[in-house]
Amino acid sequence: HYFIQSNLRMTLPLLGAVCLLTTLTTSLQSNPPLLPLVPYPQHLDILEGSPAVIDPRRFKFTSHSNSILLQEAFGRYHKYLNLHDYVQELPATLPSLQVEVKSSSEELVLETSENYTLTVTRDTALLKADTVFGAMRGLETFSQLVNTLNYTLPPVDITDYPRYKFRGLMLDTSRHYLSVGVLKHLLTAASWSKLNVFHWHIVDDPSFPLCSTEFPELCARGAFSPNHVYSQEDVLDIVLFAHRHGILVIPELDTPGHTLSWGKALPGFLTHCPGHGNIGADYGPVDPTNEGVYSVLGRLFKEVTGLFPAPFVHLGGDEVNYGCWKQNANVTAWMAAHNMTGNYDALENYYEQRVLDIMKSLNRNYIVWEEVFNHHVDITPQSIVHAWKGDWHNVLANAAKAGFRSILSSCWYLNRISYGSDWTKFYQCDPRSFNASATYEEQQLVLGGTICMWGEFVDNTNALHRTWPRASAPAERLWSPEYIKDVDFMAPRIEAHRCRMVARGYPAEPTFKRGYCKKEFSWRK
Asked: Which residues are part of the catalytic machinery?
């Protein structure tokens, strides 16, 4: 598909060569054909017959569906087909792709079907999906099948669906600000790797860029500057943009720790502990003994759930600084009056329970970092436990035994960079490998995972190329069948995917020491 060479002399064969194997029927699991597909589909057969040939200028996507989302997707993929110079070498045999969508619903939740089937022969192509979002996944696969050297496609029969229902990308916009335009580029690339969740770590200690109408001082005083904020119009723009690409936006407002930026606008909200606060400050976590805190959180979370229609809010709950609470005389006195003397786990549990009660009143489910589960907070059965530390195998195992759903991030911190092709370490991690003796039911409680790009050293200047195509490795782990895990089988495909991103105008970084793309990236003058 793209001619690739590295110091290892790895070459991805042209699709035309694959198409010559017209009598081949392949057993996917034992010998999957090397096609430039990322993520690789669940079931794929090379059919008998000649390859299809398209004229990208005249090729059409057709459907009886009146979905605006689908029509927008057709426009995107028609553009993608026409990014390369077209020289007609073979007469076109395939005029169109017929798309059939079973359901007219455009609701996007974790349970939304993304299943599709795709059949391509010399002169026909049919994509069937349960929903418009399944159709989007199929359109991406169809576009990846097109050999842009001669515009041929192999005759194939594909049945595809995600292995995990939760396939997320976390972006941190507090430590460094990411503009709306950069966020959109990152989400567009996420859709190319069939991710379906944007975990927006929107606020933290360094800044509070989310503008609130209930508490306008939060972004006025908590953001880096008036130029480093997200208006409510910006939030709506991102949520709708993500929806049009099949991505659900889940906001995170992490408390009671990671809240220094809140305190600038909310006197009395944080615990005062001179010299013992977060990052050397005089203030630490939220003061759980201040009753006014819960009034603020109730109003703020009500506003946030109105901005973000996702059925989940990520409530954080990690890295709470008990040392600050210990230094505050009012907190100590309150704990004594409530029979909690010295038991800071109980104090945290009290706070978390009050927050969870707020979410229950708002009819929202929630995701929490693993500490909330580890500290035995009474979370609801609908909660999702988010593992991020090194002992993730035990966290997922314990959560499953307790009947809770979980997701994994521990081995997918993209901000931890290293020299060379470090995507391979991300590729080798599988959430459901937490316990070889786990029952099927326990394994199914692991919903998937979130690929994290924390913002300590990431902003508009490097977020795009540092994230992709490295995130494509865990993205395939979250979509493709378990047995598609050979690094050597992935290596030429991820570089082909990288070149495909570059051709589409995205500055994805190389995965090999040497090589080139047919169409190189160039900044606009």
From this structure: 319
- Quick one: how far is CA 127 from the chain centroid? 25
Q: Tell whether omega for the bond before 39 is within 30 degrees of 0, i.e. cis.
A: yes
- C-beta neighbour count of 327 within 10 angstroms: 18
Whole-number Å distance between alpha carbons of 141 and 98: 14
Three-state DSSP state, 31: coil
Kindly state the tokens that stand for 171: 């972006």
User: Which amino acid makes up residue 307?
Assistant: L
Residue given tokens 């470090």 in the structure block: 422
CA distances from 175 to 118, 202, 203, 235, 317 (A): 42, 9, 8, 18, 18
Pairing of strands 125-129, 116-120: antiparallel
Q: How far apart, in whole angstroms, are the C-alpha atoms of residue 449 and residue 370?
A: 13
Nearest to 2 by CA among 142, 155, 148, 140: 148
Query: pTM here?
Result: 0.93
> What pLDDT is stored for residue 513 in this prediction?
86
Average pLDDT across each block of 10 residues of the chain; the chain has 525 residues. List them in order: 33 36 43 94 96 95 96 97 82 96 96 98 98 98 94 97 98 98 98 98 97 97 97 98 98 96 94 83 93 97 97 94 93 96 94 95 95 92 95 96 97 91 94 91 97 97 97 98 96 96 95 88 76
If phi over 0 gives left and psi between -120 and 50 gives alpha, with beta otherwise, what is residue 376? left
Count CA atoms closer than 13 A to 516's CA, side-chain side: 3
* R_g (Cα) of the chain, nearest Å: 25
C-alpha–C-alpha distance, residues 479 and 167, integer Å:
8
* 116-120/156-160 β-pairing: antiparallel
Q: Are 473 and 490 in contact (CB under 8 A)?
A: yes
Q: How many CB atoms lie within 10 A of CB 291?
A: 9
DSSP state of 147: B
CA atoms in the 13 A half-sphere facing the CB of 276: 13
Tell me, what's the pLDDT at 169?
Answer: 98
What residues contact residue 193 under an 8 Å CB cut-off, 6+ apart? 38, 39, 468, 471, 472, 475, 476, 479, 497
Structure tokens at 232: 């409510």
> In this predicted structure, what is the pLDDT of residue 24?
39
In this predicted structure, what is the pLDDT of residue 14?
34
